[in-house]
Write a structure and sequence with these properties.
This protein is of the alpha+beta class. It is built from 4 helices and 14 strands.
């Protein structure tokens, strides 16, 4: 006769194994495969619902020689406005970056410099640690991924991750691959990871989002990881606070910096 306590423990252990995502766990897609257009629509709708964000995070990045960790305050608003403030160990301002999506300014307090120029990916990477356009940076920092306009794609199921894998064809022969959380009877379709590859299959950038939860009615991750292999750059962003769609709205003055220091025009060329 099987002991009731042993049977209960066995059942509980089996349930835990199914939920833990342990090595060897596989997932079955529930229902019919969704259309690629529908999945992209869900990702796009979530982007449109999160129009602005105020937050604080610990940013851990590789500077080419060593890992550097520090606190950063974030402000952002679609389509491409950003304001980052890096905090020094004493709680003061180490540097600030702002852009309205077209022009950028960087006040480097530690080195007593004030840089200005176009809001190009390389200029924004000076503090953001992400070399991308302003709208793409917002997509990355809000738990999504940049979506190419009008791209067509194919769909596959990743049973090891429980993910819908959308592969989008890009001009020039490259591709963008999205993995959306398809687990359960009512999948969240959170962006679990994404990457862009060139025509030769070389990874240009990759990201992953972790620990999604609902904050003020918006699903958003607690941790985001981003890497650009060609730049030998990677960054890990761990949020300590996030306020989606803050009210009152972030003032337009946040997207521009002034300084008494002489402005240095930088182009990254």
């Amino acid at each position: 006769m099987r002991h009731p306590g042993l049977a209960a423990a066995t059942t509980a252990a089996a349930a835990a194994l199914l939920l833990c995502g342990c090595p060897g766990t596989t997932y079955t897609r529930q229902g019919q495969p969704p259309a690629v257009k529908v999945l992209l629509g869900k990702v796009g709708a979530r982007q449109q619902a999160l129009t602005a964000l105020r937050g604080k995070a610990t940013v851990d990045h590789w500077d080419g020689k060593q890992r550097i960790k520090g606190a950063v305050d974030f402000l952002m608003a679609r389509p491409g406005s950003l304001h980052f403030r890096a905090v020094d160990p004493a709680g003061g301002v180490a540097s600030k970056l702002a852009t309205d999506g077209r022009d950028f300014q960087l006040l480097d307090v530690a080195n007593n410099r004030f840089l200005v120029g176009a809001a190009t990916p390389c200029n924004l990477a000076r503090l953001a640690q992400i070399a991308a356009s302003p709208p793409a940076i917002i997509d990355i920092l809000t738990g999504s991924a940049p979506l190419p306009v009008g791209a067509t794609g194919t769909l596959a199921w990743d049973k090891s991750a429980g993910a819908e894998v959308v592969t989008l064809a890009l001009p020039g022969g490259g591709s963008e691959i999205l993995r959306l959380d398809g687990r359960g009877k009512q999948p969240s379709y959170d962006v679990m990871s994404a990457e862009e590859r060139d025509a030769a299959g070389k990874v240009l950038w990759k990201l992953s989002h972790h620990e999604f939860r609902v904050v003020d009615g918006v699903r958003i991750p607690a941790v985001t990881k981003f890497a650009q292999p060609a730049r030998k750059a990677d960054v890990i962003i761990k949020w300590s606070s996030q306020t989606p769609n803050p009210d009152p709205a972030i003032p337009d003055a946040a997207w521009h910096l002034e300084s008494e220091l002489p402005a240095e025009l930088v182009t990254c060329e």
